[in-house]
Amino acid sequence: MDMEKTLRTEPREHESADSFKPRPLIICGTALSLFHVVLFQALYFVDLNVLRTVELLFFIVFFVYAVIYGFKHRKQLSFKAEYVILAALTAWFFVSCAVMTYTRRENWFELNKEYLVDATITLLVFFPVGRYYARAGCPKALKNVVHVLILLRTVFIAYALFIIFRGGAVDLPNGGQIKMDEDFELQLNYNSNTAGAWQLVFFLCCFIMIFVIRHPAMKAAYSIAAAVNYTALALSNSRTAYIAALFGLASTVFVWVYQKKTAVLPKKKAVFIAAVFAILSCAVFLLLRDQVFYLYHASVGRFTSPVIADDSLGIKRILTAESGFTGRTTIWKHALNGIFSSLQVFLTGVTPAGVVGLIMRMSGGKVNYYTHNQLLEIAVSLGVPAMCVCVIWILHVLRQALNLIRNNYTQILYPLIIVLSLLLANMTEATLLFYFNVAGHVFFLLCGWICGKAYGKKTRS
């Protein structure tokens, strides 16, 4: 099936003349979403802290406008379960900060200011924006802006890789560097796991666009972009991100081949052929990872070092349970002990700003990391009830996707692959909420898109 044609020809949901049409809100929300993503991508490389204040003011104005606009059209509003859950999670974050402020006699709203802004925008802006465009269609101008932003970032990463493969480092205006660290893991001015999470998102988006876009020039551009982002992903040495990317790649290949073959072959044969292609793509994916490291070591004259080669190459390292610093299971044990250390922590958590401190206290100062698991991160930050609500919300989104697939609504398959890949990656990471990571922004945007398609399908039926 031609996915881009399907996307273009999908009928829009018809609305009555007097129905609630939140286009002004969506325009402002889209602008805020783009500004938020670009700002926090740039902040890792350039000192733009003054723009955080601008964003905060932008968000406050947007929030006040949304309240006024919603009150004016209150008779036409329809509150869906997913909105209520996300609003409840956001409110509980403020409750957690209030409880910590009361018990610790310190302003925990100030300590969590950046996390509050990011979580609120992620939950209450990205999700509704994705949900709206799923129903109303995405304007061509907005698609072009997204294409330009992805390809511009890829050009920057390609330049950085060119310098790194020559044994150098890219000096950034904010004083940081893009380089290979002493463990030969790519540092994009932050730790390699975060680098891997970012590259996972951009690699999967670029790889999927190869199969979706019909224009030859754009298909070629995204093919190159996928190769560049894959190289950075491999060099990050983030096993979590790499395994999630492996799942995403295999799933994408399987879906594409199956859709091509099912029109001319029996279903069982189409499944078999698609599975063979998916397995072959996994093998190539793993072999290419080794070749990236061989090429890097050869280019900087360090390939003869057996320690580097043994430590960097092979499937065994990817599947090793222990990280370079400490095992995830050790961190999880201390996080669980912290959750059950008091009724307050169990119910309202310690906020994102207190997660590392709690784990350090429970480990006697031996472990100073965040939880490295998204659900545990939410449980420690906001309490176990918030984690349970989040699980219910995720299951709701997946149920919506499953219902669409059962109705042969195949255009949600590629967004669903990205959502599932990010969920898999966050079994041993925490990049979906609180920490202004593009992985979380894309995740909630696509979840909104899936729920919007499900609602539109119900309305038309």
Layout of helices and strands:
Layout: H1 3-9, H2 23-42, H3 50-72, H4 81-104, H5 108-111, H6 113-136, H7 140-164, E1 170-171, E2 177-180, E3 186-188, H8 192-212, H9 216-236, H10 239-261, H11 267-299, H12 306-312, H13 315-318, H14 328-339, H15 343-348, H16 355-362, H17 374-382, H18 384-406, H19 413-425, H20 438-460
Antiparallel strand pairs: 1-2, 2-3
Helix pairs in contact: 2-3, 2-6, 4-6, 4-18, 6-20, 7-9, 8-9, 8-10, 8-19, 10-11, 10-19, 14-16, 14-17, 17-18, 18-20, 19-20
Give the averaged pLDDT, no decimals: 83
Order of helices and strands: HHHHHHHEEEHHHHHHHHHHHHH
Strand content: under 5%
Major sheet: size, sense and barrel closure? 3 strands, antiparallel
Structural class: mainly alpha
The dominant shape is globular
Strand order of the largest sheet: 1-2-3
Can you tell me the number of structural domains? 1
Could you explain the architecture of this structure?
By secondary structure, the protein is an all-alpha fold. It has one domain. Helices cover 72% and strands 2% of the residues. The chain has a three-stranded antiparallel β-sheet with strand order 1-2-3. The two termini are 22 Å apart. The N terminus is likely disordered.
Supply database-style keywords.
single chain, 20 helices, disordered N terminus, 461 residues, mainly alpha
